[in-house]
Amino acid sequence: MKRIKLLTLMALMTTGIMASTTLPIQGTIVKPTDKNIQYVGRICFDQPERPRFTFPGTQINARFTGSSIKLWAKPKSGYFMAQVDEAEPFKVAMMGDRDSVVTLATALLQGEHTLRLMYVIEGYDLKPDFRGFILDRDARLLPPPALPERTIEFIGNSITCGYGNESIIASDPFEYETENHYYTYAQLCCRALNARAHVVARSGIGVYRSYGGPKAGTPDNVMTTEYEYTNLYDRSERWDFSRYQPQLVCINLGTNDLSTNNYDVKRLKAAYQQFLKQVRSHNPQAKIVYLCGSMLNGKELELAKKTLDEVVAEANKQGDKQVYRFDFTPQTGDIRYGASWHPSRWQHEKMAAELTAYLRSLMQWF
Questions:
Q1: pTM of the prediction?
Q2: At what angle do helices 298-317 and 265-282 cross, to 10 degrees?
Q3: What is the pLDDT of residues 257-294, one digit of tens each?
Q4: Which of 81, 138, 241, 270 gives 20 to 30 Å between its CA and that of 14?
């Protein structure tokens, strides 16, 4: 079988869930402005009844009464992962040009229920927005579940996004269908550490040059520019960093800068240093960890590690003692590749185990 199918018969039987089923809007409509809806991630509320987001890992959570809940969003918003109560998480596809209402759960026992909903792809082309939930008649939202007190920000490229991690064929191209951020090292770490995260990530992005870019760099669409905004490639709103001050920032960049044998290590180091100052200026109290891996190997891997070691050592020497380094074990394909030779879901699990152990010790999150 070419791809891993996440929506299993068991999930259907135990939760009564129907994926990608569009229904007419009937029942109690809960607008995005409802105070009981819980948001996690960079979300633009310039249109309060249609909040917009582009980054994977964005969460929209709720507690509700009644026996069913539906998601109302912009048609062709993309893919979500949903979990109702403690049932098995399942994937929700909203890829039709007209689909805007999708049933997430039905035939639940009467009472209180919890929905955890995560956007799991890169949405900068699809431009998704959230338009509300639909409940049974006379049902309502309740105060949301408490968020974890531990907070992380993950900044990265395709590895952090989850590019191709639901494919098992290395030569597969990129497809939204096989990208699932829910099963990345980042989210697996969060669940293991009982932490929440904001994610700023995009496939192909670099610190000074994006994938295949010129040796001199691509200054207009690298992370140093995109980090300042709420949504990717959208200059309409600068992100308000006071809305989220993480205790820990993990940066996994450099793979694309060192791509296609057309790079300048001096420019890369300077960009690493600039970005560290940028991240520090917005997160003065956070521990910052520069990650390396797991796709690099050979000469490029050694250059990346050496450059990052120098950047961190110099930052420590200059007085910032809260900057650290961590290296993932390079992938070898022994536990399969995902699409385009990206980490497979099993590789992400290995990465998560390595990083979780390191972060648990670093942060004393036992």
A1: 0.93
A2: 50
A3: 999 999 999 999 999 999 999 999 999 999 999 999 99
A4: 138
